Amino acid sequence: MKKHGAPLMEGLIDPEVFPAWLTPADLDYYVGEFTASGFFGPISRYRNHERDFAWLQQFKGRTLDMPTLLIGGDRDAAFNGFGRIADPGAMMRQHVTDLRAVHVLPGCGHWTQQERPAEVTALLLDWLKAVR
């Protein structure tokens, strides 16, 4: 678990090799895009958390009442609140009245669709068939 005031990258894994889902061509594409445009735009998204929080207050106390599916990776710090959320499904059920399935993918990080495309697609298709 990260401690308050810790540097952003502290405790994160720095892989020796890139994952199979990030090909050299993909990396070259991202390098080219960020070289051309910089990081200001993408990083600015994270600078707006306080504005988002303020704007979202209008929805405080409301629930999501439609059929819902949760898929996350057990190595995704955002999914488990940087180790503070022991059961993301239980946390979600506090705000979602029709959570039909929770799938935690072992060994999977934040980019579930890229890391496990076949598995995520199969879970989505099975869930969508059951919702009909």
Description:
The chain is mainly alpha-helical and 132 residues long. The protein has helices at residues 24-37, 40-46, 49-56, 88-93, 112-115, 117-131, and strands at 68-73, 99-105. Helix 4 links the parallel strand 1 (68-73) and strand 2 (99-105). The relative contact order is 0.13. The model has no long low-confidence stretch (mean pLDDT 89).
Record keyword descriptors for this entry.
10% strand; 6 helices; mainly alpha; two-stranded parallel ribbon; 41% helix; 132 residues
Can you give me a brief rundown of this structure?
This protein has 132 residues and is mostly helical. It has 6 helices and 2 strands.
Number of helices: 6
Biggest sheet strand line-up? 1-2
The overall pLDDT average reads: 89
Which runs of at least 5 residues are low in confidence (pLDDT < 50)? none
Q: What is the structural class?
A: mainly alpha
Radius of gyration in whole Å, from Cα? 18 Å
Q: Helix fraction?
A: 40-55%
Note the beta-strand portion: 5-15%
Number of strands: 2
Give the overall silhouette: globular
Per-chain topology:
Layout: H1 24-37, H2 40-46, H3 49-56, E1 68-73, H4 88-93, E2 99-105, H5 112-115, H6 117-131
Parallel strand pairs: 1-2
